[in-house]
Amino acid sequence: SIVSPLLRTGYHFQPPMNWINDPNGPLYYKGWYHLFYQYNPKGAVWGNIVWAHSVSRDLINWIALEPAIKPDIPSDEHGCWSGSATILPDGTPAMLYTGIDRPDINYQVQNIAFPKNASDPLLREWVKPGYNPVASPEPGMNATQFRDPTTAWFADGHWRMLVGGLRGARRGLAYLYRSRDFKTWVRAKHPLHSALTGMWECPDFFPVHAAGLQAGLDTSEPSTKHVLKNSLDLTRYDYYTVGTYDKAAERYVPDDPAGDYHRLRYDYGNFYASKTFFDPVKRRRILLGWANESDSVTHDKAKGWAGIHAIPRKIWLDPSGKQLLQWPVEELETLRGKPVSVSDKVVKPGEHLEITGLQTYQADVEVSFEVSGLEKAEAFDPAFADDAEKLCGVKGADVRGGVGPFGLWVLASSGLEEKTSIFFRVFRGGYAGKPVVLMCSDPTKSSLTPDLYKPTFAGFVDTDLSSGKISLRALIDRSVVESFGAGGKTCILSRVYPSIAIGDKAHLYVFNNGEADIKVSRLTAWEMKKPLMNGA
Ligand code: DQQ
User: Fold this and answer.
1) Glycosyl hydrolase family 32 C-terminal domain spans which residues (predicted)?
2) Each residue's pLDDT tens digit, 217-231
């Protein structure tokens, strides 16, 4: 084959073969976590979409079951698209999802399915009641842009759910539907929220604790703070705002009036069509997302698979109230082997330090950096204030800086012909004199293979650098690097396809390409074991 089998991920979610996209209907039921996802049973490209189904005790080891929801009623016979689970008061899950009911155009309706046998903890079989569909496009609505129902929530005698849509050419919206019995759904006159951003795919709406508490809330629990997320098909990124849900007015109001355009993202890399759910066992909210390949379609077909999911992340509101924090679920740590640590190492300008004593193609790395001072920091050019990605495109890992670029070279070949750089770069003179911290993933040197898509990803990190400290965690898994900056303030997932830095030829380094010393106060790296992964 033209692609090394060693590039198939080891501990990120994927089925043994074929195409996967959005996570669907995640839920916890009778001792098992359930994950459904968009799946093509017939190949490694999008099409023939069914809901594949896997179960897990810990969100890390997965067992594949038969597809749960397949086209077999008139209102989904041309595709079972994305949707969400709601746990009803009697404990039974209900699944709301989009069906394609015409072959010619993507005419979209919303359907409902229930477990055939609620006493089966594996929820293997699903039935679709005869009253489907439960919501159809009405005159004046764009029937081809009407999909992805949310988890429903209950308040004041009614269930409510959202469906993503588009009005005119540009207004993305979250239609609001109400129901007393979970069967008859009526659209509210105005959407819960909308903005001039293009179509909203996969909306998600959930309460969070206001005080920076890490605990999650069930979707129906009242709260003073909510999060609304949507996936913009125009940019292929997931954006969210933090705001208030006004139940009486049936509206959501973002705290920052510019928030809809301010562009906070769950992840500044390859991460789309995500969805959260409430885990009643550990009382946390968990975020799941899809990471597409950035390899060529020819390679995808040759490999016979395409698409993975990010490691499930716990999410909660930052104490500032301005953004979310994200961290890989603690269960991931059960895959860690023997640690290798480095402490109090200074990396001088232009130098790098190799981390040895473990295999690093499938690893978890946590590092705390200390910057000696900000005197040498480059001046911030306000022209880049809204465009971290552009700034990183101009100032990649190999462009010498003042304070930074410093960080990790991962999946690097011993001669450094190939390396993926995950790093920070600090600038002077941001808003109100605050230093600006940029976090980047620079894959431009990640592979010698020609014709790969190698996008540079970046986000700003809203962190207080007065202590001089900043942390980075990188989950390295053969063809994916999932990075968490400053304790999960800024996250970047990248897909890379090295041609040399594969298997035991992959190396890990700390680098400093600035003019100021950088101290590694502590770095710990673990080889990661392979979990049960759907039988592959
Ligand atoms: N994927 C699904 C849609 C959704 C899109 C189709 C997002 O329901 O809008 O596979 O990736």
Assistant:
1) 331-527
2) 999 999 999 999 999
